Amino acid sequence: MKRNIGMMKDRRKFLQVAGASLGVLAAASQGTMAATIAKSPNGKSLAGVFPIGWTPCKPDNAFDPDAMVKQQQFLNRGKVAGMAWPQNASGWQSLTPEEWHAGAEALASVKGDTALVLGVQTTGFNTANSQAYAKKAKSLNADGIISLTPTGSDAEIIEYFKALSDASGLPIMVQAVGNVSIDTLVALATAVPTIMAVKDEAGDPLERAPTLLQKTGGKLEDFSGGGGMSFFPELELGFLGTCPYTGLADVLQACFNSYRAGRKREAYDSFGRFLAFNALPHANEYVMKARGIFADDAVMRSNPAAPGAPAGGGGRRRGGQITDAQKAEIHTALDTYLKPFLVA
């Protein structure tokens, strides 16, 4: 009986998403969806795969700017559209202002086609401090900025993003979290014209996309997070990007490129390989080391644990300890199943 109930719930969810997809396709056929992809002031495309960069550190948890440079160079070699740093996956709350500046400068020092979007939220969403980061992003010739949504009323959220826009004038990606509604995002995009995309994590992005795209006429690009694990069905709904982790960003970018070129079966196959690899234990945490970008003893910053959550923020190794056997399995998967698809 429990299994039947679960199957009914899964079937209901499928029908909801399928219906939403048909709604998007219908809207597109009526010309209400804008196909234009935003460009940065540097002429770079602000669509596609924009992984959230890691914050690599040395074994003693000391910030490693050289590893940051290698990370951005890796994405350039992989022809990945862009990179956003620092956000939640980067452990932004653990960074000192000095580390934020060092990281931003390291990333900006790398020349190439991969766009740079700098995260400018600060502890407590202090507007003046966030504006200072936004101004720094502008001075570094960044392609855009990104910020999580602060808590508060719609008017307060709009005021915050207006302040960021005034400080930099750069394209803005909004990372919607908490209880931010679609209507709030629509009002925000209308009030702040420099907002070009939303990384929607305030609810189920697959369920919210049709309404969001319809109400904004497709002018607001829809991105998601979640490690890129639902990217293909998101593309089917009209998403123009995703913010996964960096390790297989080149594979996901190839998936995006194939889809946009009309080679959907090829895109589907690339996405399947991405999912299969990420099913391996510790694959996401170790892949940058397996691909020779980070040192094997590097640690990644994470946000402090929330009250009541297991301890282990700061300099802990993500995902706990990986075994030698698991490392070998990851190397085998890369060499056997993914090597022809790795661009970087």
Question: How would you describe the overall organization of this protein?
Answer:
The protein has 344 residues and is α/β, with parallel strands linked by helices. It has helices spanning 2-29, 65-77, 97-108, 127-139, 154-168, 182-191, 205-215, 231-236, 249-260, 264-278, 283-290, 324-338, and strands at residues 48-49, 56-57, 82-85, 115-119, 144-148, 172-176, 195-200, 221-223, 241-242, 299-300. A 6-stranded parallel β-sheet has the order 3-4-5-6-7-8, with helices on one face. Helix 1 runs parallel beside helix 7, helix 2 (65-77) runs parallel beside helix 3 and helix 9 runs antiparallel to helix 10. Mean pLDDT is 89; it is low at 1-35 and 309-318. The protein is built from 12 helices and 10 strands. The chain has a single domain (28-341), classed as Aldolase class I (TIM Barrel), CATH 3.20.20.70. Helices cover 46% and strands 10% of the residues.
